[in-house]
Amino acid sequence: MVETIVFGMEQLEKLAKSIAKKAKAKTGNITLEEFPDGESYIKFDNPVKGKNIVLVQSLHPNANNNLVELFFAGRTAQELGAKSVTGVVPYLAYMRQDKRFHDGECVSNKHMAHLVNNSMDKLITVDPHLHRVHDMADLFYIHHRKVTANLAIADYIKKKFNRKKAVIVGPDIESSQWAKRIADKIGFESAIFLKDRFSSRKVKINVTTELDWKGKDVVIIDDIISSGHTMIEAIKEIKKRKPRAVHCICVHGIFAEGAFEKMKKAGAKTIVSCNSIPHK
User: Fold this and answer.
1) Is 150-273 assigned to CATH 3.40.50.2020?
2) Structure pTM?
3) What contacts 253, CB < 8 A, 6 or more positions away?
């Protein structure tokens, strides 16, 4: 039987150990350092020849650096004779850059995919942002699999909230694939709002379904919280309706530009994300 070794990169050692334990595989060590001029230094501290190698790397924070490290590590493992290289990339950056909105812009998602395709044999990711690109196969020709955090989030909500005293909300149509599906699975009442986007930092939330919000826990679910503007505007609209409390849950917590603190200030009682992106 071919041995499998799981390597955790950039703060994901804990997740790598958890994956290795469930897969009954070994964990390895990979040295990731930076030369004085800023270039990356990468070294496998375990022999990889003839082994199935798993690289666990999230593409945030430091998306550019992490992507280059992942590419270098994957290519190096292949050059050293690994039987296979699998990238477990919980958060796949650049997926939102899926269209040339203005002349001269780079459509970054396909170039990110090019690097992955040329350094991996397999890719596993969690709830990738599929908007204008509907199928991972349009970007990745290697074996790929997308998994969802819906079950984990559903279990969390079921344990934390009373079904009769809580409402699940999706802040826009795109979020329904998380909010609506999770609500239906655990039998919670739900509503999906509509969003008008005017810029990357200016949105307007329209409450299209009026429920009995008063005195209830309202749980807003989305895939990504980046600048937090969508969540903040949703929180403001819900707070007008006198809920008991507002809670925010996401798969990928980027929390750019002080989003976490801004959401708290807007009225979020709790903010929870999955561990696809490392946080202190």
Assistant:
1) yes
2) 0.93
3) 225, 260, 271, 273, 274, 277, 279
